[in-house]
Amino acid sequence: MYDITIVGAGVTGCAIARELSKYKLKTCVLEKEVDVASGTSKANSGIVHAGEDPVTGTLKAKLNVRGNELYDKLKEELDFPFKRNESLVLCFDKKDIHKLEEMRQRGLRNGVPDTMEILNREEVIKLEPNLSDKVVAALRLPTGGIVCPYELTIALAENACTNGVEFKFNTKVEGVDKRKNKYIIKTNKGEIETKIVINAAGLFADNLNNMVSKRKINIIPRKGEYCLFDKAVGSMASRTLFQLPTKMGKGVLVTPTVDGNLLIGPTSIEMDDKGNKDTTREGIDDVLEKAKLTIKEIPMKQVITSFTGLRAHEVDGDFIIGEVEDAKNFINAAGIESPGLTSAPAIAEMVSNIILEKLAPEKNDKFNPIRKAIPKFREMNNEDRKTLIAKDAAYGKIVCRCETVTEGEIVNAIKRPLGATTLDGIKRRTRAGMGRCQSGFCSTKLVDILVRELGISHTEVTKFGGKSNVLVGKPKDNI
């Protein structure tokens, strides 16, 4: 029997798992997909928010600011891409400049450091020369940042795993029963006994909560569509550019990614289907049209892909974190939408404190907070490259030309803790296939490497698990 079972291996679940690995607890994480970061955690803006936006007094406000504070230490320990590039909230009408001051004051009440400042047009243009002529002022937020959301999640999961947490993939929860002092979690792979359940199931956290509690929650998926641009135009914005919210909505953001691309989006459309991740012509057109308010010219020829993410919006609007009143030892971390990515480290602290009160576990004296990322060939100087190749010749073989990813990196991604087993798993760990050609040249080689390293057949290789097989057989087999 487990002490703790966490349902969901997104950024929230993995942050909680890593925090709990600091203690002598038998912990496992259940994930219905083939890999970590397979839901909302892989498809979002990648923004570490300063904390000026959430309503004062909410969990979103409190955990946003605390989470933001924790990122520098986390980056140092876990070696994932993170940068404090600052954020700007742009104002387009002089009549609305007072709203920037209101936002600054709210930030101060929320605990954002008193480094925020309101800039006039001339000051803003000096910082971001590609802004549109409609910009009249901006609120500058020095503590804002950008992060790679899936590399963060992978880093948290790997460190949790090396510190003793078990991960069970392709394991879907089908029911939860309370029996005396334990829970029986029914899955497609059998039953799991556990003292405590932590519900970090993202879009499906309401389903899990509603299995055990009369206090129902309701999560509505909010669809957000994005456009991703080539690195050639990544420098069009050096800071994350938000639009001042109006009666027409929050607008869209324009931001560099931590890997050097330009990202524009998202839309915000409430859906009925929690599996609908389709991109639409209408959605992409809407994103691009709204972005014209922020920057002078949209570099349409540099679009390399579009994608959709679904956010877990709970109807009451705030995070739901804590023990369920009528289900002892069932702990929710539900309704984690924006600023959920920023808040994840603080959510993990909050949930961990609940566990410490309940179980009073000993500290794990073998806990190692350090995790090293896969060496990135593209970021090395030639001397470091030569040294690496001398140790492993596979690092001298370029597989993905767009992103300069070597065979050595790909093999590393497969062999490390919770290693990649799919094309998307390799992509999220190494960026192989994320460049301008979108894996047009490297996908066949990636398939071959997966076959060789995992000891499987070509027809067993999938893009993202399940029935997403890349190949169905040899040509002659289908004649």
TrEMBL record:
Source organism (scientific name): Clostridium ganghwense
Cited SUPFAM superfamilies: FAD/NAD(P)-binding domain
Pfam families assigned to the protein according to its UniProt record, in alphabetical order: DAO, Fer2_BFD
Domain FAD dependent oxidoreductase: 3-352
Record field: transmembrane: none
Residues of the BFD-like [2Fe-2S]-binding domain: 398-450
Protein name: NAD(P)/FAD-dependent oxidoreductase
Cited InterPro entries: BFD-like_2Fe2S-bd_dom, BFD-like_2Fe2S-bd_dom_sf, FAD-dep_OxRdtase, FAD/NAD-bd_sf, G3P_Oxidase/Oxidoreductase
Gene3D superfamilies, per database record: BFD-like [2Fe-2S]-binding domain, D-Amino Acid Oxidase, subunit A, domain 2, FAD/NAD(P)-binding domain
